[in-house]
Write a structure and sequence with these properties.
Shape: rod-shaped
Strand order of the largest sheet: 1-2-3-4
Helix content: 55-70%
Low-confidence stretches: 1-26, 44-51
Distance between the termini: 115 Å
Number of strands: 4
Order of helices and strands: HHEEHHHEEHH
Mean pLDDT: 80
Structural class: alpha+beta
Largest sheet: 4 strands, antiparallel
Number of helices: 7
Strand content: 5-15%
């Protein structure tokens, strides 16, 4: 009988621990998480405010402000929160003229303290100082914005006039040389050459004059900003305002903040804001028969504000300051309104001129085409040809100048509305 075989068991061996292999799904999950993270960042980044790019005119304004000769504010010491002024000392000595009299020496150390009403006024001054500083800076930027606008547009207009004069000079140089050759051959009268030469000299004189004016405009811009490179792009961001916002106009805001500060300063002299006074008193008595005595004490001086007593001079000064402020504000508001209405009327006129000149330029182009055909067949006199070609150039120059005047008018409207660069 065959016995069943029994498997031979060897010694127990601990199983080797292998590092676990990543599941095939883990890379896919990691990629998916990374993709979600990228999408989340892309969704968040557009919500961050974009840094506004500075326009050429804004860069010119910053240069002008940096170049301005500003002395800067003096560094003033911090005002005390409790003491209203400098402490004072009073020393007194009383010599008795009697045989049995008592001599007295007195020392008083006075400390002026701010009353609660005065401390409330001081807290108001901190807010007023911040408001006045902000209004002053906004007004300064507005003023320099107007200076930059005027300088760049003055240069642009002068440059356009100079370009038109140079174009006219080039045409006259060409016609002058041509007519001189024709006059030498006897094809045209000599006076026609003289007429062209006269026009050429007039154009030369105008070009020289306008070149000097352009250089002066560049120098004025350089004086303001420190650079002679006048920006070519004079556009300003934002829509043209429909009307000035007088509640936020820098000139009016500065006037308001100055009045607030003036009224606050005058309020310091009101009786109800009088300071308190604390006195530290020391007395020494030297009496007869060796009688000596020393006393120490306190004295407090408080204004009785419940009586309602007012200072007539202070009230008069406050009323006068208020009347002067209101008058100055009315005067400034009226000047701003008059300037705005004048600029609006000028804008309407320039728009009408632009529409008419657009038709005139189209007509001038047709005239120029016809003149070129007639000149090619010698069917037009040289004098008439010269006059008509000059008229064509003048029409085109007037149209370009009107477009620039419209841009200058819009810049002035922004300035009158209180818009800074």
């Amino acid at each position: 009988m065959t016995r069943p075989s029994i498997p031979v068991r060897g010694p127990r061996v601990s199983p080797r621990v292998y590092p676990s292999r990543p599941s095939p799904r883990l890379p896919a999950l990691a990629l998916l998480a990374t993709a979600w993270l990228v999408l989340a960042l892309l969704a968040i980044l557009p919500l961050r405010p974009a840094v506004a790019q500075s326009t050429p005119l804004q860069a010119a304004l910053d240069s002008a402000l940096a170049r301005a000769d500003m002395a800067g504010e003096d560094t003033l010491p911090e005002a005390g929160s409790w003491l209203a002024g400098l402490p004072s000392v009073m020393v007194a000595y009383y010599d008795s003229q009697e045989d049995q009299g008592t001599d007295e020496a007195e020392l008083i150390f006075n400390l002026p303290f701010k009353s609660p009403a005065r401390r409330r006024l001081d807290a108001g001054f901190d807010a007023l100082d911040g408001g006045l500083a902000g209004a002053s800076e906004a007004h300064r930027r507005w003023v320099y914005s107007g200076l930059v606008r005027e300088r760049v547009w003055a240069h642009r207009l002068t440059a356009l006039r100079l370009a038109a004069a140079e174009e006219k000079r080039t045409l006259l140089n060409t016609l002058s040389a041509r007519i001189q050759r024709l006059a030498e051959r006897g094809a045209v009268p000599l006076y026609q050459g003289l007429i062209v030469e006269r026009e050429r000299l007039a154009a030369e004189l105008a070009a020289v004059t306008l070149a000097s004016e352009r250089d002066a405009a560049s120098a004025a811009y350089a004086t303001l900003t420190g650079s002679r490179d006048v920006p070519a792009d004079l556009s300003e961001p934002g829509a043209l305002p429909d009307a000035p916002d007088y509640a936020t106009h820098p000139a009016l805001l500065l006037l308001d903040r100055r009045n607030d500060q003036q009224q606050q300063l005058l309020a310091l002299d009101a009786p109800e804001n009088t300071d308190w006074n604390l006195g530290l008193v020391a007395r020494d008595f030297d009496g007869p028969a060796g009688f000596n005595d020393r006393q120490y004490g306190l004295s407090v001086e408080l204004p009785l504000g419940f009586t309602g007593i007012q200072n007539t001079g202070n009230l008069s000064a406050r009323r006068a300051a208020s009347r002067e402020y209101l008058l100055e504000r009315d005067r400034l508001s009226l000047a701003l309104r008059v300037e705005w209405e004048a600029l609006r009327a000028e804008a309407a006129l320039l728009q009408r001129r632009q529409a008419i000149l657009a038709e005139a330029v189209a007509l001038a182009d047709r005239i120029e085409t016809q003149l070129e055909r007639l000149d090619a067949t010698s069917e037009v006199e040289s004098e008439l040809l010269l006059q008509r070609l000059l008229d064509v150039l003048d029409t085109r120059a007037e149209a370009s100048l009107t477009d620039a005047l419209i841009g200058q008018n819009e810049a002035r409207l922004r300035q009158a509305a209180g818009r800074s660069l």
